[in-house]
Structures are given as structure tokens and as C-alpha cells.
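step=predict obj=Branched-chain-amino-acid aminotransferase n=163
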Amino acid sequence: MTATTRQRSAETQEPRIKSLNYLNNILVKMEASQAGAMEAVVLNTQGYVVEGSGSNIFIANKKGELLTPPSYLGILEGITRNTVLALAEEEGLVVREVPFTRHDLYIAQECFLTGTAAELIPVISVDKRLIGNGLPGRLTKMLMQKFQQYTRQHGTPVYPSEE
């Protein structure tokens, strides 16, 4: 489902700062729960898809390109997101960090969310519309496998402390 709660503007709150101010995320998660959804898609004030309540979002378009919102839209640059970007590029996928709309999401062939605890979660429908054929797609499954192999070999990625 798409949340009615919009993402706070990057100009009002630096998205790279993880603090205890998760009110927006909590409101979005509550909206999803009340709608019977596991997660919600968040739009920014310009109407672009930016993330989930606690996850980053990726779509695969009809050309087979992997798209994810760029950091300048105010997303949190997640550890898992960055690892998936690197793994996708290693696999030779065309990866583009570009703004995309809800319409782009609706017509996507695949969609998945990334997060440290969740890793990669396939999204098969949004707003009662099937994504692709309504099943996890080939790229999603391949990246899930690559990420699992990566974590078995290297452990869960974390950002080094800046001391």
C-alpha cells in the first residue's frame, strides 16, 4: 500500500542521521498495519517513491534495469541497499539511481525491499495491483541468493565507526 504520510523533506531533517526521531516511520508502519499490509511505500513531497517505513526500495523495469531512488531525494542510504547495488553491478545488471513514480512502480516487472534485518523482501503487489506476474521475479531471486552467499562468506555488512 502507498502511505498517505509523506516523507519529511531532506532540507528539514538530514536523512543520514540516525536518531531516535522515527515518528514518520512509525506513522507509516501504523498506516500499513491498519490497511492489513506488511509494509507501505513512502512518497516524498514531490510524489516520488522514496522508501518503505524502514526499508529501501528497488524496481526492475521492462528493460531489465534495476532502479532505486537516489540519495538526493532524502532516502536513508542503507547498508543492505549499498551491498545489493554492488552485487547487482558485479552481475552486470544495469543499475540506475533515479527518481521514479508510483506509476513506474505499478508497471514494474519486479519490486523488492532491502533492510538490515529483513535483507531482501520480494514485493508482489502494491495498492492491490500485481507487480509483474505477482510472483518474486528472476532478478529479485538472483539478488536474494547473491546476498545470502555474500553474508555467509563475509557476514552482515556494517558501516565502520568514524572515530
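step=describe
The chain has one domain: 23-154.
step=end
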